[in-house]
Structures are given as structure tokens and as C-alpha cells.
User: Fold these one by one.
Assistant:
Number 1:
Amino acid sequence: MDTGLHGKRALVCAASKGLGRACAMALAREGVAVTITARTAEALQRTADEIRAATGATVTAAPGDITTEDGRAAALAACPDPDILVNNAGGPPPGDFRDWERDDWIKALDANMLTPIALIRAVVDGMAARRFGRIVNITSASVKSPIPTLGMSNGARAGLTGFVGGLARQVARHNVTINNLLPGPFLTDRLLSNAAAAAEKAGRTVDALLEERAQQSPAGRVGDPAEFGDACVFLCAASSGFIVGQNLLLDGGAFNATMG
């Protein structure tokens, strides 16, 4: 399938590892010039080198914390007119909402709702003027099925989803689409670190916990990040301009519903 993306420009946030990296790699394989961001400059440059070596694409590293004004300014200076924007940021910590103060909530909203909105605001009019734009927000399966211990994530990501649902219908006529990718469990560093912490607390092995997690899925496994990257490419393809304001759930069938 020709995605029609060769020669396009993409800004992919939080892309030194995990699902952001998978999206950047998949887009680069399609001939997209990719600008990637992350807080740790060394890890980011290493990832840029790896993507460049694997795909031959132009890859620019823009280190910085995308949840800050300075980090966003650095990213947009490196890629001021992207055709594709992939919003991504680490999720807030789990816990009991009774323990969270206002500052905790503001930090979660800044990272998982207000930062994506700020980046969309910065690029969407340029996309509309050029008559091509693809914006993909990496949110969470918790948008459809809230996770009790992730209350801050549930709230912030649901807020972004509501905002996107309205804006997507306003810009679609300009061939600008905005959609969300909702990951369930994927084999990323975050999943492994969470499993390690849970294993230590439960007195079990990481492998045992990962196998248990896999068997809880109808697919019988956790996701491969490369699959997630391919889904991102699908939403960004030139032929996907009629997919507007959707929430694509990638969870191996864990969310049980007749209609998503």
C-alpha cells in the first residue's frame, strides 16, 4: 500500500523509546522526514541514529521536555511546519485520588491534555493552509475503560478526547484529520518497569507477571510496539482523510463491547 507520505514532515513527541519511537520508526520507513523529541538528549540522539540507519530517512533530534513551553518551542523550531504531529507524553503516576493535591492534577493536565492542545494550536492552521495534515494523539485504553488506580490519567486523557472530538470536525474539510490511538499493554520499557515493581511487591518473577498479563488478553499476548507504529502510519496515510475524530483501540480485544 502506498501511503502517500514520502517527503512529508513529522513531529513525534516523546519518541526516544516505547510507542513514540515505534511511531517515528514506522513513519520514517514511509519516507517521512521525522523530528523526534524527548527529555534525555543522549537517549534521543541514539534513537535518531538508529532510525536513520534502519530507514535512510532524515531524522532530527530536538531534546527537551515537551510538557514545558521551552520544550515545545525547541520542537517547533526544529520542525515549524509539520505535515504530521504525533502527540505523546508519559502518563501520571497511579495512586488514590485522596492523596493527590491540586499541583498533581495540574501537572497531569499539563502533560496529557494541555500540551497536546498547545501543539495542535501551533500547527493546525498551517496544515489547513497546505490542505494536508494528520494529527495523532497517543492516549490510553483507559479513555474507553477507566483504570481505577490511574485517576489522573483517566481524567486528563478524557479531557483531551472531548476537545479533539469537537475540533476534528471543524478542520476535516481542509484535509486535516485528528484521531487518537488508545494503547493497551505493549511491550515497552514502561510496561517492564511497572511489572518489575509489581513483581517485587508480590514476591513473584517479572516473567510470571508478564505471562499472566498476556493470558488476560483475548489475543493471548501483549502488543508489539511495531504494530502500534503501523497503526499510526495507517491514520496518517493520504488515503485516510475520511477518518475523523476517531479513537482506535489497540488492546488485543480486552475491551469487551459490541461497538467500540
Note: The CA atoms of residues 2 and 237 lie 8 Å apart.
Number 2:
Amino acid sequence: MESLRIQWLKQFLVLTLAATVLAVLSFFARTWQVPILEQFYSFHFIGIVLLFYWLSYKALTQPVLFGIGKEIQSPIIAIEEKYKKSTLETEQLIFIFDKVRHVLHDQQLYLKNDLTLTQLSVAVGISRHQLSQAINSCYTGNFFDLINDYRVEAFKQFASQPSKKHLSLLGIAQEAGFNSKASFYSVFKKKTGMTPAEYLESTSKAT
């Protein structure tokens, strides 16, 4: 929605600039009595009328552009709506999430390429629903985003180890918990802004 508003604003500014230029030309044409430019005078009013009609059309067909009507809920609002019946307080959610991170770090469960939310909830000793709420509330993403963050960091760590040099990129990724080449490349690019090969090249140059 934000991109649509920016696009609409650009269109509005271009049309407003055109109408302003036309108005300035019309004014000086009549002041200096320039016959050719005087012809713009009538078009100036037509342009202003068309601009207002265009604004009215946009307001009727796309009211959200003007802040009218409902927009898609933000992730935070959606989460609050989803868990509004929960009795967990903020402190409890933070406690659960800290416990999740400790379990993931100590047991390295993220290295299992078939790890599920249910398996993690059993390891943490928290119900699946409460575990999901804690992750979604305390982390900028869901269960899969969290696990993939750990896997990306594991890949980086493994890739720097001499004992893993004989493995391909996919081989290292599989040891880090990824179960397919497509998901690995997609997640790694999303998290780091680079492909795995680009990342390794940048680290080799740094050393």
C-alpha cells in the first residue's frame, strides 16, 4: 500500500507541476502580450479542472490512498488479534522466548532439517500455542524465520571451518539444517542480501 501511495504522489506532483508551468506561461503571456503563449491561457483553466476531476476519481476508486477506509492490518495488530484471548503477560512471553533461545543454542535443534514447532515445544517444555505466541510476539518473524536465522549463522560458522572445506555449499547448508538447495539460497539471500557464494567471496577478501 505504501508503494501505491508513493506512485500516486509522484503522479500528483507531475500533474501539479504541469498545471503550475501552464499557469506561469499564461500569466506572462498576457502580461507581455506574446501571441503564441497567450493560447495557453484557456488551456490553463482546462488543466486545473481536469486535475480536480482526476483527484475526485482517485478518491472514489482508491480511497485508501487518501487514508480513507480500512487498510490491511499490520503484523503487530494481526498478532494482537490472534492472541487477544491469551492470558500470558509480556514478562511471561519474554521468559518463554529466552528459554527457547537457550534450548536452541544448547541443543542445536536447528541442525535438524525436519524440526517442527511441536518438537521444539516438547524440548522447551511449553505448549505449542504458547511457544508460537512467544516467538511471534518477541521476534520479528515466525518459527521458521527464527530457525532459519540460526541455520544461516551455522552455515557461516561451518563454512569457515577447515574440517568442512571438502563439502560443497549445499553440503555445508545441509549440515546447518537446510533440506534443499532452493530454500537455502532463498533464505540466505533474504537474511544477508548476498548469495552464499558472494558471502564466501567477501569473507575471503576480508581475511
Note: The CA atoms of residues 8 and 65 lie 8 Å apart.
Number 3:
Amino acid sequence: MIFREMELWFDPLARSGPEAMAVDEWLLGYATHPILRIYGWDGEWGSLGYFGKLTDAMVGLSGVNLVRRWTGGGTVDHRCDWTYSLIVPRRYELARMKSGESYRAIHEILSGVLKAEGGEPGLAPSNEISGGMCFENPVEYDIMDAAGEKLAGAAQHRGKLGLLHQGSVATAGDSRLRGERFAERLAESWWEAEIHPDEGRVAEIGALRYGTKEWLERR
């Protein structure tokens, strides 16, 4: 376990790409202790990392709506995945770890969750490949199945407010059961929360950043 206490939030709204990203940014400013957010997408969406090339993402996900994340990593197809975010305020140790250490800590726990669903997931060894289609290019500490196929990946952003870890599992599974299993392995004490984002502020963040052509086409 990583935390003493944590909130689990099943976001009840399916959201567009810009709105989904804006909620995570809003949560980073709102959170006073860790929050595990489980959410879905409104429509067919893919996301590309902060440093990703839009032209590459468009080739990999032709005809799919795209949004650029605040976090790094490659391009992710969200049409059939299970998506979560972990928001960790700065005062927590995980938010102050080096990126590789925190990535490994979270994925070791998630690997146990996926093992409980069947199969033999494990962490990927060091790999210099990055970017491109995320699930075609595993990096160190991604989660792989017994056949060497990537099961789960993630990307992170660190700032003065803390850590934003955005993750994706290739198989949707039982969303509620998976979320609860993940929460009980992440924290000694957790509870399902009803969080009501400031939707006006979320819309503003989306309009000023994630929904703009300038943000999407920056690379």
C-alpha cells in the first residue's frame, strides 16, 4: 500500500477529451489527499502525450477525435480501454518520488489487480522506445501479459501542486470491481466519494487549453 487514506471517485459523466483532461487538472488543485478517479469517454477519443506529434497520432488513430494530455507518453486509443487518474498532492511521498519510482510503485499494485482478474501480468523491463502508439511501444514498468503484449500504461505530470498520473488498461473489464480492488491495494483506508467539480471552471480550462487548436497542434 502507498497511502494511509484515499478517495475513490467513479466520475458519473462520460466526457469529451478536453473536458476529461480539464477535470484532472481541476482535481489537482482541489485535492487535499489522494484521489483515484475512474471515468469514461463521450464518443470515440484518443489522447496523445504532451510531447507527442499530432501527425503521428493522426496516422495511428485515423478518424478518431484527439486530445493532447498534460502528461507525457505516447498515443492511447480510449475507445475500448479502462481509464483512470491518480491525483496526489505534493505533501505525499509518492508525489516527490522520481518518475520511474512512482510509476513502478503504482504499476506493481495495478498488476496485482489485473492478476486477480486472471492471467499473469508483469512489469516490462527497460526499453528505450517511447512515443508513438503507446500500446505498441511498451516502456519500463508498463504492464505486460504472459504473451508479451502490453496490458497497461500511464503518463505523469509533476508540478507545484503535486502528481497527476493518467493511466489506461487495454481491457475494460468490470470497471467498479477493478476500481475497488485498485483502491484497496493503494490505500489502508479508502472511501467512495461524490465529487462535484466546478463545471464552470472545468469548461474554462477546457476552452483555454485542451479544446484549443493551438494546444492540440503544438507539436
Note: The chain has a mean pLDDT of 94.
